[in-house]
Amino acid sequence: MTAELVRGQNHTLPQTRLEIRVSAGTPVVAGATLGDERGTVHGIEWIAHPGSPQLPGLEVSKQAAADHRLAVDLDAVPAAVHRVTVLLALPMEVGGPVRFGAVAAPFVAVTGLEGTEIATFTLTGLDAESAVAALELYRRQGDWKVRAVGQGYAGGLAAMLADQGVTGAAELARSIHEAVARGMARSVAPPPPRTPEGDRVRHTAAIGEPVPPVAPPAGPAPTRPTAATGPTTDSTAGGPTAGPSAGPAMGPISYAHPRRQATAPPPPPPTAPPAEPGRPAQPVAGDATGWSMEERLYNQVWGMFEDLARTTAAYRSAVDFAESRMDQELDRALSDPRNRIGGAGDRARQEARAKRDQLTDRAREALDRDLAQLAAESAVVEPALPAAFAAWDNPVWHAYRVPMEIPMALRIGDLHLPENSDLHIPLLVRLPLERGIWVDSGRTASEAAALTDTDRLRRLAMDNAVAHAARLLAVYPAGEFSVHVIDAAGSAAAALAPLVNSGVLAGPPAAGAGGVASVLARLTRRVDLVQMAIRAGASDSLPPDLDTAEQLLIVNDFPHGFDDRAVTQLRYLADEGPSVGVHLLMVADREDASAYGPVLDPLWRSLLRITPVADDHLADPWVGHAWTYEPLGLPAGSRVLEQVLAQVAAARRTGRRP
What are the backbone dihedrals phi and psi of residue 576, each rounded to the nearest 5 degrees, phi first? Predict the structure, then answer.
């Protein structure tokens, strides 16, 4: 499974003979430097570049190109080398781009010799920089790892080489650009974008990433729309937005994979025979485009979500049109006083209602046909989902094993619309989490919440939070995810029992004001240190006692046990934590926290709000449907949660974190 890295994240390399593939939207210069334990480069003989493309264990391209393949044999590099840093720079040609902010984000992949991807990194967020340290391969305790760096330099190649301790960096940079200029006639132009055929191809975006604009449909829904990121807007509490905004009109759609700017993913294999004329195609699990079955299933799930959104929007639009047309015809007919007496008025009403019913019935037929197709697709896709995408009652959990790689996404619930409450679409969020989660333990406007007493709502909310934490622990490799709990009043002991008894928590649940202050101080310190290390490019200098795994903080019964300082720290973790691997899972009733006033509004807006019972508080950004969120429930009498956590705990005791 490919690890999609974010800036500062590392990943163990399972082999030492590798290829590093670079894909950019414009010709770039690719090189690499060899550094010691501190990353210092001890001379030009430690630098591979177009003018000197070969070093022991390393070979780079001889010219600028839109696509590069760098060969690396880590067993062949000198023993004094502890870091191999991959560098990208824009060539200093007249008329070419002078900053990375003006070109497509470069994509870098570390692969095996057979082409299997090990780790990938998209260099987003660059602006005025003309050179960038993309990633580094580094030696740690005899093993090699890869780290996503993404450190840009507005001063170009000279500034980047000087930062690595190279003497005469300006002269060396000038000679490199001269060598590139001599070979520019042989440079490889960026390949033209390709649009794969077929309506199953979709542009995949993580929650929060921009996607092409999608306008609400005015007629029957197409068989498969494009961009898919899911419902994201809290329509009842002014909640957070986790997806893109809809555009005002349809336009040309780019089907390019957002992390591979120059090429399109391979089409799915032809696993089903073509449908007979006049009959819908038989659904197949994984028939969306993607580089792996996991990505295909992810794309397919969000494609199903958009299908349901658009076909329902078409139906509702048709019903509204039929009602409006009936009202207009009645107004015209009854505006004539002669039609208000006798049978003329009654006939006009009957004709208008008959036309309304005819239009509505036709719209319902189209909706039922689309819903039947989606239900058939769901019946095929659901059993094929991997554990991270699957519900708790899926048999895949009975064959669960602690994974070696982080999956693309995690399922946190289901979504459905009132037109067919039996058709559920999985709600997937990308990993690593880009925002925290708020499980609302208070009363909401939903019927299910109204029928549940307050104490049971609080218990269900905490059970829901524990289940989410267990899923996160289960889908991460052993030791790469830590969970902390703040239960200031000690009211969640029963709900926390699966986590506590299995021994997967980083420490006992923190109680009282002192426990709250201790946990928040420790996590705040981690955020500060990691941020400083990333900015300084000194990730290896972090204190040895610092846990570099992803961190999750569960907070129960907020704001009990919190003073003003603790509230400020919590807001800081919500804002700054996700970028360096610290995430919040709040269990709280907003009414209980209203005493703090508007100071907490940014906190609530930064979290994705979900509920412990069914509630229609999520709205999609395309057509504005109010989607009903259904939390994932454990099967009655099942011990799947305890079994999964037991395997996680056993893997932590016997394994070694990469």
Answer: -100, -20
End-to-end CA distance of the chain: 15
Tokens 């300084």 sit at which residue?
536
DSSP states of 446-487 as a string?
SHHHHTS-HHHHHHHHHHHHHHHHHHHHHHSPTTSEEEEEEE
Q: Which two tokens stand for residue 110?
A: 């570390």
Look-up of token digits 């429930």: 633
Instruction: Give 336's Cβ-side CA count (13 Å radius).
Output: 10
Nearest alpha carbon to residue 243 among 216, 206, 217, 215? 206
Phi, psi angle pair for 543, to nearest 5°: -60, 145
Helices (H), 508-613: 512-536, 564-576, 601-606
Q: Tens digits of per-residue pLDDT, 593-638?
A: 666 666 677 777 788 999 999 988 888 777 778 899 999 989 888 8
Q: Give the residue among 186, 126, 184 at the shortest CA–CA distance from 156.
A: 126
Burial of 301 (0-12, 13-18, 19+ CB in 10 A): buried
Contact 107, 68 (CB under 8 A): no
d(CA 410, CA 405): 13
Question: Are the C-beta atoms of residues 87 and 149 closer than 8 Å to each other?
Answer: no
Q: Where are the alpha helices (DSSP H) in 135-246?
A: 156-163, 169-182
Residue ranges of the chain with per-residue pLDDT less than 70: 1, 94-95, 183-281, 338-342, 445, 593-599, 655-658
Q: Dihedral through CA 50, CA 52, CA 55, CA 58, nearest 10? A: 10
